[in-house]
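Hi V.,

Quick status before I head out on leave. The structure for the redesign project is tokenized and pasted below; the design run finished overnight.
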């Protein structure tokens, strides 16, 4: 299988972390979907990464779909529980992390526009979503070691990739100081080889 993405994409990183946790070897092809010569739209009509190409040429896209596929592809280190209620709880966390991340990405894209074209109201709206997402994560984490259950799951991976991307792209955002439970979780995740081997690169 081959994964198409970039080192800076937090969604690509989530999939790469899952693959490493699952001990699944993936060929990794760098393709920036913003580059004029990108081939990403040949595999994903939305033109976004990550894309996972299966052995038969089938393309899977959206990190949630790919992560679930990889979790089912190997019995090693199940990251999504089989029990329906526990599974939904993990997917709920993943959705919360991804929606928070999505707002952060939109905020960054708007901030990269020419100053005269930027909408500060739009940026403020997305920042509000990011702050609300982080607050919800902090409240739900509380004193728990992991997002849910007694071991690392896709929920923790999604939250970790989201928070570390925010730190990467918005280093002045003080979420570690204001959200100690999230800080503890992310610090714990950062020591795992899967996270250490997938550091984002601009």
């Amino acid at each position: 299988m081959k994964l198409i993405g970039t080192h800076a994409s937090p969604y690509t990183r989530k999939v790469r972390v899952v693959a490493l946790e699952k001990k699944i070897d993936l060929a990794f092809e760098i393709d920036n979907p913003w580059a004029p010569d990108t081939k990403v739209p040949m595999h994903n009509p939305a033109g976004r990464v990550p894309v996972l190409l299966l052995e038969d040429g089938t393309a899977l896209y959206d990190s949630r779909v790919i992560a679930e596929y990889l979790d089912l592809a190997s019995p090693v280190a199940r990251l999504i529980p089989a029990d329906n209620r526990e599974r939904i709880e993990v997917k709920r966390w993943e959705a919360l992390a991804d929606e928070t991340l999505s707002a952060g990405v939109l905020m960054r894209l708007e901030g990269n526009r020419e100053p005269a074209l930027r909408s500060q109201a739009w940026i403020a709206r997305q920042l509000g979503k990011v702050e609300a997402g982080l607050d919800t994560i902090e409240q739900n984490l509380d004193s728990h070691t992991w997002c849910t259950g007694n071991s690392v799951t896709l929920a923790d991976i999604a939250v970790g990739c989201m928070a570390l991307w925010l730190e990467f792209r918005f280093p002045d955002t003080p979420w570690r100081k204001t959200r100690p439970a999230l800080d503890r979780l992310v610090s714990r995740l950062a020591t795992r080889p899967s996270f250490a081997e997938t550091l984002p690169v601009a």
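Above is the designed sequence. The first helix runs from residue 10 to 21.

G. will cover questions while I'm gone.

Best,
W.
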